[in-house]
Amino acid sequence: MFKKLFGSAEKRSDSAPKPPSADKKSSMVNVIHDMKEKEDTLEKRKDLLEQRINNELQKARDLNKAGKKPQALMCLKKKKLLEKEVENLDNMIMRLIEQRGMLEASTNTADVVSTMSQGVKAHKENMKNMNIDNVDEVLDEIAEANEQAQQINDALAMPTGLGAQMDESELNDELEMLGQEDLDAELLEPASVPKTRVEGTKMPSAPTRPVANKTPEELELEALQAEMAS
């Protein structure tokens, strides 16, 4: 399987990019440094020529004011030659900058590819040292350990002692019987008579004038009506 993924060792050694040697890398760094120094030298040369251009222009103005036209024209010719040289310097500086940028980019790319190649080699070495049988064995051991832990948890969750000997169906029957007894007790209790007067109802008041010859039942009824009206 690994041969299909990574190929044979001979093919890997032939196709893998070789990292640049220390001498080549040092040589590239030196070239880039030299190009930067040359660029700085040309910039300094350019600044000097621009100063000379400004001087020749000022001389041409002064000579023209003094009426020395031939000398003024000579100064302008020198200025034109100096401007041409400055233009050439700009082109050389631009080419140096472009070439230095390309060289720096290629150097960085080579470093990145070299680092990636080393990472691939390290990964292949790890895969070479890894045995698939050892992986399967470790996974089996993990599964066995998990199964044993589950068995221990199930054993600890089982009731022991008196709790294990009790019959749950018997306990459920007893609980149901207690509920039936409570319900029977509630049905046998007498209904309570409300003592509060219901709003909106008015009991007839007892007659104020005395009534002769009332029976005990009538007197008790009147007392009950008076109590309910209060």
Q: End-to-end distance, in Å?
A: 103 Å
Arithmetic mean of pLDDT: 78
Rg calc? 57 Å
Structural class: mainly alpha
Order of helices and strands: HHHHHHHH
| Largest sheet features | none
Helix content: over 70%
**What is the count of helical runs?**
8
Uncertain stretches: 1-14
Work out the oligomeric state of the chains in this entry. Answer: single chain
Strand content: under 5%
Q: What is the β-strand count?
A: 0
Q: What does this 3D model show about the protein?
A:
It is a single chain. Helix content is about 80%, strand content about 0%. The chain is mainly alpha-helical. α3 runs antiparallel to α4. The longest helix has about 60 residues, at about 70-130.
Task: Map the helices and strands.
Elements: H1 2-6, H2 9-15, H3 22-65, H4 69-129, H5 132-157, H6 162-165, H7 168-188, H8 216-229
Helix pairs in contact: 3-4
In short:
With 230 residues, this protein is mainly α.
Feature tags:
230 residues; 8 helices; mainly alpha; disordered N terminus
